[in-house]
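Final report, Chapter 2: Outcomes

The project's central promise was a pipeline that accepts a single protein chain and returns its three-dimensional structure in a standardized token representation, suitable for archiving and comparison. That pipeline is now operational. To close this chapter, we reproduce one record exactly as it appears in the project archive, with the input sequence first and the structure output second.
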Amino acid sequence: MKKRFYSLLLTALIAVSAMAQGQVKYVFYFIGDGMGVNQINVTETYLAALKGKIGFEPILMSSFPVVGLVNTYSATNGVTDSAAGGTALACGKKTKNGAIGVLEDLKTPCTSIAQWAKNAGKAVGIATTVAITHATPASFYGHQPSRNMYFEIGQDLCKSGFDFFAGSDFHRPNTKEGELSLREQAKAAGYTILTGGYKEYEKKGRKADKLIMLQSDEQNEKLGSDHLPYALDQTKDDLTLEQICRAGINYLMSKGTDGFFFQLEGGMIDYACHRNDIGNAINEVLDMDKAVKVAYEFYQQHPDETIIVITADHETGGLVMGKGPYELHTDLLRFQHKSIDELKWILNEQYKKAPKKFTKEAVEKQLKQLMGLWDNIKLKDEQTERLTRRWNEIEKAMADGEKVNDRISDLCETVKHVISEQALISWASGGHSNGYVPVYAIGPGTEVFQGRIDNIEIAPAMAKIAGWQAE
């Protein structure tokens, strides 16, 4: 009886999906890099705690009517990396860890849903909060045996002909001696490159034949070329995923292709979780949800022609809510006002500018203001002692004329551990796990994503709903 029920259910879902074919014109594909089930859970638990209640306060993406669980293992590993995970989500094919848009033999290319949309005559946008040549976005246009072949992946981007790209920059854009930089190659391929944020897009972007939006050169100089600022660290002048989503929709609609495919990655969720930086991770999930809201506004205007699908390539950090006592204190995370990376930068800059004023009292003042320690997050004596030992190591390095930055990093690492401990959050590692990731969806035909599915099922199902030919 149960087997017959599931068979009938599957038949019904396929029928609903088939009805949507040819009807859907606009496809949004959000990927929260490193965003497992617990990354969503802790975010919603935190929002509830801010209101003084135990439970959860739903964010937009998890409120979508279709909810499922996704397996993430790769062809060669029980725990995937972002390259194999991205290739599975983009191309519907399992591959070896580290491979971009090729099969396990590392030679045979596989095409992505972005290419299937392009072949169907639709406009295509690829966007991220990290470098546009990083593993997840690269999986939608690149074909390389190694994710570390950034220059070759950048060349694949230039050859793709896709309409819109956005992110921090090309990563390592000048690594091939005697060749043009990737920015120069992109311009030669007909791309207009903007580095002035959304305001510059409004002035110049709409007229571009093909467009690449990057963050400012000043931010690249500070952060490196591989990511936008964390949400916690953003200023009003920084490029955000929300702005990218708004600009991308506007630009893709202007192409007059009667439809588009738009992939957007919240890539910094992964970064924050690799660092076990819990307050930061929560704010990155909320930051991606802001971009989802922009897509949802579009969906509300075109509900019969739009689908939004949200998932992740893997979980990062082995995040667990609970650490011994049967309670949580996620409300304390509201006092973390900067990422741990930004805290390191601030303290290093403070030392460089005035080493003689870099005292224990000055550092404690920063930890109180930026991280909430002592004044708002009451520490145990043992935690204060650990932080004091870290300061003593900094003081010794200064006295001995040694480099101080490594000791400052050690202090900041202890700060993040103390914050997780106080919130009763634990982490299994600084790497990926094989934990389930969620899939959320809304729009015609998206019922096929209900239940437990494999990551290679998502792109072909989306293509079927849109009426695009998967290759």
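Archive annotation: The longest strand covers residues 26-32.
This record, like all others produced under the grant, will remain available to the consortium after the project formally closes.
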